[in-house]
Amino acid sequence: MSSLEEARLRGLLRQAQQEVHAVESELASRMTEIREFDAKVEARLGPLETELDILDAQIRHYRKEINRLQSAEMFPNWVDYSKRVNPSARPASASKPDQPPSKPENELRQLYRDLARKYHPDTAFDDLDRQYRHEMMLRINDAYASGDLAELRRHAGGKVHIPLGPEQPAPPAFRSPRERVEAELVACQTKLREIRAQIEKLRFHPTVQLSLSVKLAWRQNKDLVGEMAKELEGKAREKRRERDALMATLQALQARPNDADFGAAEGNV
Question: How far apart are CA 98 and CA 106, in angstroms?
Answer without folding.
Answer: 15
